[in-house]
Amino acid sequence: GPRPVSPPPWGSAGLAGAGGPVGGSRLAGGPGTPLLALPRGFPAVTWLVSASSSLRACWEKPDCFLCASLAELYSYTEGPEFLLNRKCFEEDFRIHVRDKKWTELDKNQHRTHAMRLLDGLEVTAREKRLRVARAILYVAQGTFGECGSEADVQAWMRYNIFLLLEVGTFNALVELLNMEIDNSAACSSAVRKPAISLADSTDLRVLLNIMYLIVETVRQEAEGDKAEWKTMRQTFRAELGAPLYNNEPFSVMLFGMVTKFCSGHAPHFPMKKVLLLLWKTVLCTLGGFEELQSMKAEKREILGLPPLPEDSIKVIRNMRAASPPASASDLIEQQQKRGRREHKALIKQDNLDAFNERDPYKADDSREEEEENDDDNSLEGETFPLERDEVMPPPTQHPPSDRIACPKGLPWAPKVRLSHLLWHQGEEEVEQVPAEILYQGLLPSLPQYMIALLKILLAAAPTSKAKTDSINILADVLPEEMPTTVLQSMKLGVDVNRHKEIIVKAISAVLLLLLKHFKLNHIYQFEYMAQHLVFANCIPLILKFFNQNIMSYITAKNSISVLDYPYCVVHELPELTAESLEAGDNNQFCWRNLFSCINLLRILNKLTKWKHSRTMMLVVFKSAPILKRALKVKQAMMQLYVLKLLKVQTKYLGRQWRKSNMKTMSAIYQKVRHRLNDDWAYGNDLDARPWDFQAEECALRASIERFNSRRYDRAHSNPDFLPVDNCLQSVLGQRVELPEDFQVNYDLWLEREVFSRPISWEELLQ
């Protein structure tokens, strides 16, 4: 079995620090602070496992959500570098500590060595600095060489990362990252190379790996966290979102890397890691969907608005997926199969939501499906959703009596949409919240940032074909030597497809988070970002993304689970064969791709909602059949956002379309919120008539420019930049407020500056 290791020295608030080697006579919260006396020879891990249920769960069972986010950071091509990082650490560690392992040191010894490593980052020799950075990365990866299980790795990783944060590692890494971004020699060398590989981005990848691990670990709370760690988390979040890095937030620096990469000046930048770090940084500084919901409720209370009628996340979680409208080929196939299955009992509809009933995070649900299965291609459920915390946050366990009772009827409370009467309130107090600070940092180059993100999204889309002028997003996945065997080629093919899927996931998450936070902070901030996405052809790009076999994309198996971190560093790896690679893993669906699809649908909804000109773009680009094909994915959340997009354009599609798509119309009625003054089903709305759509977009753009000019234009606030008035009458007619001391000494000024000076009036007139 896995060998026992000493527990991390968490301190008195959580797990105790090892006062000596494993099996010592006591555990100590710090030097000389006895916590619990143990019989000599009693294993510390045995005491740890029996200490409490929450700590036992943390120690014995790995966090699979964290496992997924850690695994996606590394490409399979980077696998050999894990051992290289360990070698760099151990060579340096043995110089200073000869008779102990890292897991056997106390907290003070850990801090001393961490500070020693931090000093090593300041050496001028690039090779030495890289070796020290690799040693720090090994510490951040949980010193896996001394761990026996994935749970051990995660526990030590959490302790080590808070230790690195405490000694100031993150700020040192930011300085090094700045230096690498401005490294003109590396950029010019990469531009001249005909083919860029993994080796060209080594320094950047090591730095970005450490920073990602720090941000992703610190932003998540865990049971047993010390009060000291909670304080560090709040401080770190505040500093990460503040303009402390070159007078701008850290996210703006990462956006700058994205635009520099897309401009062709830095083709060696490891863009997948940059985008993942950008996503987690935005998530850490601004907050996720649950934080958004609480902030929205707080703002409504401050403004005296009634509370929200329901929690949308809870409503969607309790919705059932509908059977998609059958195509002609489906109907023929069903007729042929109907005879064979008449003798069988009626089977429950099995769909992507079926995992809710077997999900260990949900209570048992004995409700039967209300619909028959009219599609034999439905997917089977999975017991553990990897992206569940991001598609919809995982619910806590409740007894069956605490479950939300879903009343019969419509899932959403109807609303009445009120028209946004705009007025200028004069000078306003701008609260410097994280979203406001980020918007101010992005504002000067926001159009370029949006174009760059969409360029990368286009290059990563599965429907895109390779072109000579498209950007190369595979620089941080291609090895120096191309594969020579069939097995190596298959492995690289899986790695490349997985790489593209992760990029799509990160970009879709960043765009959706920014849109939601800017909309909550100020509606014109949201409109400014949304309009530039529309100008950069985001709508046809997303429709092009969905114009594929979406079922194949959702069920794609572009992963090799035995090569995922941290599994690959604590287990003996089986021999890979072409057959095992072709079979893929045991997961029925790719939750990463489902997450990306839902995000893109939500972005499309936000861009087109209540905008007639943009809704007409959906009609012009013939999105209805594309979206109807997406309804084949029987997952409630994805279906909801597809139906929303179909609802907004129904009034433009004509009576014949509505007549021949009554099942879709019925699904819209059942699952999408109703607006009592929105005549979506019949097209009698005067606002829906197709005229003056260009004027609508231009008026919105003028309003956005007025907002940005009034609130952020420095010329309006700095008198030195105001235009000069050259009209003599206008200047003399202005009322000037004179200071009080001047008025007291006015007679003296007249005597000295006017009466005592001779004036040549003729010269003055000439």
From TrEMBL:
Q: Which residues form the Far11/STRP C-terminal domain?
A: 325-746
Q: Basic and acidic residues bias: where?
A: 344-365
Q: Where in the cell is it found?
A: Cytoplasm
One of the record's GO cellular component terms: cytosol
Please give the InterPro entries that the UniProt record associates with this protein: Far11/STRP, Far11/STRP_C, Far11/STRP_N
The UniProt keyword set, sorted, is: Cytoplasm, Phosphoprotein
Q: Name one GO biological process term.
A: cytoskeleton organization
The Far11/STRP N-terminal domain covers: 61-351
Against Pfam families, the record matches this protein to: DUF3402 (PF11882), N1221 (PF07923)
- Which intervals carry biased composition (Acidic residues)? 366-379
Residue stretches spanning the membrane: none
Spell out the SMART domains in the cross-references.
DUF3402, N1221
- Answer whether the UniProt record assigns the keyword Phosphoprotein to this protein: yes
Q: Where is this region: Disordered?
A: 321-401
The family line of this record is: Belongs to the STRIP family.
Report the function annotation for this chain. Answer: Plays a role in the regulation of cell morphology and cytoskeletal organization. Required in the cortical actin filament dynamics and cell shape. Part of the striatin-interacting phosphatase and kinase (STRIPAK) complexes. STRIPAK complexes have critical roles in protein (de)phosphorylation and are regulators of multiple signaling pathways including Hippo, MAPK, nuclear receptor and cytoskeleton remodeling. Different types of STRIPAK complexes are involved in a variety of biological processes such as cell growth, differentiation, apoptosis, metabolism and immune regulation.
Q: What is this protein's record name?
A: Striatin interacting protein 1
Q: Upper taxonomic classification of the species?
A: Eukaryota, Metazoa, Chordata, Craniata, Vertebrata
Q: Which gene encodes it?
A: STRIP1
